[in-house]
## 1
Amino acid sequence: MSKTKVKKMLFILSKATIENVYAAFIMANGARMEGIEAEIFFTFFGLEAIQKKKMNGLHVATVGNPAMHIPTMVGGLPGMEALATKMMKKEMEKLDMPPVDEFLEILSASGVKLWACKLAVDMFHLKEKDLIDDLDGILTIGDFYNQADQEGTQMLFI
Amino acid sequence: METLAGTNVRVNEEGYLLDFSEWNREVGEQIAQAEGITMTPRHWEVIEWLQDQVKADKALSIRGIKKSGVLDIKEFYALFPGGPLKISTKIAGVPKPKSCI
């Protein structure tokens, strides 16, 4: 049990751009490394990060992201997202950051609970077999709030 | 300068050894006790592996544990609950890893 005041971190991941997915993964892993419990609730586009067929093909957003320092018109050209993603993945590999599938294995082995949002799963017509084997279950938002029902819990929407 | 209780072993403000040459198993045992961990032969195997990694100038990370072939992440958390890399490196007398992963 952690000695910190924060006992449990709950992340709601609603996006599937690389920067958002990794933000959730790194913070969840970092929590476990500090002895803090962590869970991730994948909803809407966040579900792409736990779909076997899609999770290793996530992209960084080059449009509508001023910090990319690419003019919006250029960012929208074909192949720009793929190029920017390739460059970012190269930098991430240098820092020994694992790809999405391996990162999920690490998180699951570290005791991070991985949940899929029931409403979003239904909306995107997904089956359990489309999702990673390490998934802990498909929850409603009410179920997820129950996971938060303890002292020292923080919830973060990404 | 801070020292480990009852010894001359120098540690930083977080309790990590400043000089690995001052480390021995008794020192490791004392740190483990303070962290609420009872050391077993398996614990020492992992500690020795960590020390070898540091001596070989390899950065420690949770991904490195997964690839180690020595133990898997689940066992690592079971042996050193409550922050495995942070606690095991303290017991091993090596610096706290600076990586975010």
## 2
Amino acid sequence: MRTLLVWLAGGLTLAGSSQVALANGWNMPVGVSSLSGEIYGLHMTIFWICVVIGVVVFGAMFYSLFRYRHSKGAKSANFHENTTVEIIWTTIPLLILVGMAVPATATLQKIYDPSDAELDVMVTGQQWRWRYEYLGEDVAFNSNLATPRAQINGEEERGEHYLLEVDEPLVLPINRKVRFLFTSDDVIHAWWVPELAVKQDSIPGFVNENWVRIEEPGIYRGQCAELCGVDHGFMPIVVQAVEEEEFDSWLAERKEAAAEEAMGVDREWGMDELMERGEGVFGSICASCHQPEGQGAPPAFPALAGNEQLIEDADWHIDTVMNGVSGTAMPAFRNTLNPVELASVITYTRNAWGNETGDAIQPSEIAERLEE
Amino acid sequence: MWEVIKSVLAAFLGVQREQQRLKDFERGNPVAFIVTGIVLAAVLVGLIALVAVLAAG
């Protein structure tokens, strides 16, 4: 009996140290959404059930090993079957499993009920960034990694949010039910933000649903959770949860900016403004593969600087950026970038790093080709 | 008949008395067990579906 107590004490020590592990961030977070606390509670309930089973089973085993050891003259029993014991050890796990399935199913039902959402956000994974579209609001943008290349290459000290920072976070209101629609442009990605208790695959050709009602304002970070290519680690997620009024004014501002941008399609753009805009687009969208100086990384990512086909054939160049090249890593950008962004980045790549074609591609021209 | 049902239910759980097992094999005709097994499996599926429908309702 004393030995059993020793084992129980050992088990409790282990259990105690898992409390420490929680504090150290080894465990999943309690989170800030209406369901995340419930999911955490479910996880902990099942964890403790497992701990109790582990302590009892291994306790009984080690106790028996020690108490009835051969050196003390123990003789092994020799019998063939015992129906009562078999029924007991079959029924108990059955009851435990059903007991765990009941609360788990109750929570899953809530997770799978995206009805009555007040805001729909389409989340599209793309190698290697996330695109957010506020459905019905005409607001959409790409969210790119903002960590400087110098930090990644080890030339600079790493910042506080190394690889977990983006140029434009997903802004969401608190206390509103937000429905997410997940899909992908290329390969399978997964949108994962632990604090929101949302982890959902984004699959090309499919639309997955999930929802969240955030209860505390703040910045919540996450990552792509499905290996999706070389820059899988470089497409983080940042969610900025704000008060409802703040969100409404932010959305109104973005809508206005989007409307202004749409008007800009029709006017004639000057070379300088196209180049300036294009440099920004190139930096956030193209440079991760084609490199900041357009030198590329052959053979996977061809050089743009001094690329003869690009310089000679503007039509091919525009088509390549708009529609991508199937069978290669070059995606189609016709749905990711708007006409102004497409025109300016094409103009930029036709005139930067010694590609002096002098071509100024107009947004109106791109808009026409997009409609074909 | 009741004996057959009991044996099939025991098989569902995966535990059976050796005595009962030997007795079952004396019957010589497996058809009763097969038919009972199929019927009870359908009942089990129906029960699970019922629980799922009630839970979702």
## 3
Amino acid sequence: MTSNNRRCVVSGLGVICAVGNNVEETWNNALNSLSGIHKTTSLDTKNCYADLAAEVNCDTLDDIECPDEKDRASKLCIKAMKEALNDAGLGDFADSSRVSVIIGSCVGGVLSIEKYHRGGKDVNEIPKMPIAAIASQVAESCHAGGIVTNVGNACAAGTISIALACDLIRAGKADVVIAGGSDSFASVPYSGFLSLHALDENGCSPFNHCNGITLGEGAGIVIVESLEHAEKRNAKRYCEVLGAGVTSDAHHITAPREDGICLLEAMERAVRNSGIKKSDIGYLNAHGTGTGKNDNAEINAFLKFFGDENPTLSVSSTKVMTGHCLGAAGAIEAVFSIKALTTNTVLPTLHYSAEDSEALKEKVGQMDYVQNTPRAKELECVMSNNVAFGGTNASIVFSKKPGDVQSQVAKDKKIAVTGIGIVSPIGNSKETYLESVKSGKLPESASICSTVTNDDYKELGIKMAFYRKLDNLGQLQTVSGMRALKDANFTVTEDNAKQIGIIVGTSEGGLGATYDFEELIAEEGNAGGSAFKFPHTVYNAAGGYLSILSGIKGYGVTITTGPLSGLDSIGYSMNVIHDGQEDAMMATGTDENIPIITELCQKLNVAADKVVEPYSESSGFVVGDGSVSIIMETEDYAKARGAKVYCYALGYGNGRKNVKYGHISGSDEALDIAIKDALNNAGVSMDEIDAVCGFANGFKKLDDIEKAAYARVFGDKLANLPLFQVKERVGEGRAASAALAAAEAALMLGGELAEENAYFITNAGVSKKKVATGGFKKILVTSFATGGSYSAVVLGK
Amino acid sequence: MANEEIKSKLKAFFMSDLGVDGDVLNYDTPLFGEEIGLDSVDSLEIISFVDDNFGVSMTGVAKENFQSIDTIAAFIEKNKA
């Protein structure tokens, strides 16, 4: 049985969708087989072949603090969050570091992107655009002071958020996690799915007519709590969250694999990690979008997976009621799954005629696809599945019993850093980057970017048939990722493809591509979207392309929290390895600087007008970009394949003091917390740190926070502590710079960067001198995000 | 519109909108073969482009018509008003 300290329970639920504005209303309407799908009046449907959607109808979304500062996606999420906290008997957390927020989203603040573009480029819309705003604003609303992050895996994001919540609790990083997903209905996804001919003009009909999806919107929140914490406060307990499985198809950017083998693997992992039998699962809330490709792949995968062991499993898709709520889908469906479990009631898929039922029976045999009306059924465990663009598969199990969850089974394993891939404005490989460092190369202007060329593809053997599909972000990510694999001498084969996963960290992800798409449809109308461009709008497209190109089929998650995402990708990768999920992980940080990104920075008054260097007390920073990928694997795995080891990942930590999203001032002490947390996690004392790779970029407000925190944490030691700042060379490349700081630390520890310019902070001010790095044994790496979050990682020899 | 002009317009579209390298794209190069690697998403874009620019619908048209710039141009020639 799952040991008590590994048990995660659900203590609160919140939901808002087209079927209802709270859990009770939504559940009751669902029991009455009501669908929220109707003709949309909120968007331009001129010349569009489909005009149905499942929209939220709620006039109290603005009853929150500062509604003008929040996108609809945040408002939906905060509404569901408040219901869930109230349900759980929880309130304000006073910045407690034990309370985390993890929210999944696909299109995030896309309505604010549209509003900015079509409404005179109002600067106030900018902070609402990225997905990262959602979790930050949720945390700000209830003062959650733990890890605050967003999952950007499109339509599987909601499910992954809940899985990640349990991972954090089981790793001892949190007691309570507000987990879920949120997305709003908007022109970009509507036009995008139209361009793919993936909308059903008659409304989606999962596992039945299968002519396409119908888009919905909404948010779902599940309060996941450690058993210990829930017991202590005598909390309501809906159920247990057992294991989950996340995999990558390595197949196609929009279409699922027909053979469903990676969906099978995700379900296999979910069952295995739960410590249950396949036959314990009484109901499966399927992804069931209503497209032929998805539904047929799922039908076959369910038959194959459950087959003789569980031939009469009940299955349904609730998207026929809620529409496809994208990043919120998994969260809303988790709420349905948990309600199904606790009330022993399976919701149906709607709109089956007698003839339809017969036709389905031909395909699914005795498997129980519940149709039209709810079914009473005694349930022990339920499974909820979601899949996504980028080839992501996610499966999770909710249960009345504790199961036999195994986690942190590889906690004692040392994690080696064995490969580094760098794409930066000063070089597209580790070698050229190192040359640029040695020659003292600095930014040539206040806005710089990386440029991938055909030479990079040629060197890596990437064919035109593949790279022609990539957008800029995808180019940066695939080149850095493939270079990291090459550097690690890691060949992905059929045998090891599932033993390695990818976590992409990104600050703005597909925001630039979304803006590009918005420009197109503002001009051409919603009927004029591009099927070629639309996939790039999802934040996990870059990671998806890397999975397709490399063949990596294991864990695949894109996190988006601001610059620190490039460092959290390392921390979360450590956790995936410690959980025994994978033997190896690729942790990346990737962000792009295309013209719109510089424009947004300039509008926000954070872009410098000339080249500035860290600690220059400037009023802005150089806008940069890049992609840095780092291969990490257990020491045993590295040794077994004879890999060279740069250094070891010893620990990671996080800190948060809530300030408004888009701001940093006032959050200073949270960096101290992150550093201490990382040192503690690594079992390393402050005295053992030989150097710091930081995040200063020249912008005074930010650099002052960094300096002051180091002074508090390191005290007298600071005057002689070398600080390295990659942004002097590559500008503020957000997640790419955070990962680059870690890569530089690894290069120093690995002996490939023998000397380097270091900053020293003393009472007299900041000085700079070249130092030899050969004696370094342990290096601290730090990063930040607006809204008041900080992360730190300790790397050591 | 002359056949050559249609072909040249198509080639320009493949290069600008579908990321195809013009150096390897001849009028008879197989579009869905290994080198160019078009897929179902790209065919949606081709259909949309042909409809918008030549007023010819290729929705539901047999696969062989999409084989190369030559075959698409031939289809357009044959079916334009």
